[in-house]
Amino acid sequence: MEAGGVTDSLLSGACVFFTLCMFSTGLSDIRHMWITRSVDSVQFLPFLTTDINTLSWLSYGALIGDGTIIVVNAVGTVLQTLCVLVYLHYCPQKRVVLPQTAATLVVFLLAFGYFWFLVPEEDQLQQLGLFCCVLTICMYLSPMADLVKIIQTKSTQRLSFSLTIASLFSSACWTLYGFQHRDPYIMVPNLPGMLTSYIRLWLFWKYPKEKDRNYRLLQT
């Protein structure tokens, strides 16, 4: 195998491995919800945005015939859908969360139908690529929804350190993958992923969870 082929295989393997690691961090949240029968300290928005994101990238991978993108996002869709369903099952505020989820799903289905049935074939790649770019950026930004609250409380309890590390490596690998394949729709949206991961790492350094535990002990 030529050197270029080896590099391609290694990079594809790294993309698959680190992205599946990122998706699998949701399994710890599922376990937490299952054991506690609650959704305390679990964020719903990252589950929902990631699920829609994986569905979109699965379509993109099928459109360009990229096996790496197809495999990663097929597994990711299954895992994230499971996370969403478990959260909805244990969420006490179903009257709020269910309509939000349904509205998001309806918007996605309308966009999906518009893309496949109304967009000319020669424009599909560009429009789907742009759509995936926006969703990926939203996915990486969603854990930052509680940024103000984190700074006010000086607590990173609502952030996942393992998800942050997995997101950093995953976004870095996909940035290189997009650069190697000269695909800006893959490369560009993963740059914010690296940036937001570094911001979250800074928050963990600034407000370590050990201080959170000490603070709760003092309060009790």
UniProtKB/TrEMBL annotation:
Any one cellular-component term (Gene Ontology): plasma membrane
Topology versus the membrane: Multi-pass membrane protein
Keyword terms of this UniProt record: Cell membrane, Golgi apparatus, Membrane, Repeat, Sugar transport, Transmembrane, Transmembrane helix, Transport
Stored Gene3D superfamilies: 1.20.1280.290
TM spans (from-to): 69-90, 102-119, 125-147, 159-179, 185-205
Major localization listed first in the record, in broad terms: membrane
One Pfam family it belongs to: MtN3_slv
Subcellular location as annotated: Cell membrane; Golgi apparatus membrane
GO molecular function: sugar transmembrane transporter activity
Subunit structure: Interacts with TRPV2; the interaction probably occurs intracellularly and depends on TRPV2 N-glycosylation.
Family the UniProt entry places it in: Belongs to the SWEET sugar transporter family.
Annotated function: Mediates sugar transport across membranes.
Protein name (Swiss-Prot/TrEMBL): Sugar transporter SWEET
Organism, scientific name: Galemys pyrenaicus
